[in-house]
Amino acid sequence: MTTKPSKDLETFPNPKLGRDYTIRMTIPEFTCLCPKTGQPDFASIIIEYVPDELCVELKALKLYMWAFRDQGAFHEAITNEILNDIVKAISPNFMRIRAEFNVRGGIYTTVIVEHKNPSWTAPVVVNLP
């Protein structure tokens, strides 16, 4: 294969600095391994963020997510690892990651983690009539 999994997260400059906007990405085919049994875990990962100076490049994100395929980790740990890595790469104003794991042992697990830049103030929501 010419393409291989990679933990390198490439970035590009935010094309609209000074404007708060939300980027949402859904990764419906995330896989990792159960640390207890070695069996595959499947999840949908939803990433939402308000960029500051940088955005994450999508192909790099795809290869990054692929890198977890052979990694054993608890749902909570892997979701926090993804948040930490992306925050380290792009330093967003705000980021939320929601990991919705498929059933394991009759239990569905959803893990939600967030990061907020302490110097950023979220815009006021406008409710239109």
Q: What features would you describe in this structure?
A:
- This protein is an alpha+beta fold and 129 residues long.
- The protein has one domain: GTP Cyclohydrolase I, domain 2 (2-Layer Sandwich).
- Helix content is 19%, strand content 38%.
- The strands form two sheets. A four-stranded antiparallel β-sheet has the order 2-3-5-6, with helices on one face.
- 19% of the residues are buried.
- The model has no long low-confidence stretch (mean pLDDT 96).
Please work out how many helical segments DSSP would assign: 2
Radius of gyration: 16 Å
Distance between the termini: 54 Å
How many β-strand runs?
Answer: 6
- CATH topology, what is it called? GTP Cyclohydrolase I, domain 2
CATH class call = Alpha Beta
Order of helices and strands: EEEEHHEE
Enumerate the strands of the largest sheet in spatial order, edge to edge or round the barrel: 2-3-5-6
Question: Overall mean pLDDT score?
Answer: 96
CATH superfamily: GTP cyclohydrolase I, C-terminal domain/NADPH-dependent 7-cyano-7-deazaguanine reductase, N-terminal domain
Unreliable runs: none
What amount of the residues lies in strands? Answer: 35-45%
Helix content: 10-25%
Shape: globular
Give the CATH architecture: 2-Layer Sandwich
SS content category: alpha+beta
The tally of domains stands at: 1
Largest sheet: 4 strands, antiparallel
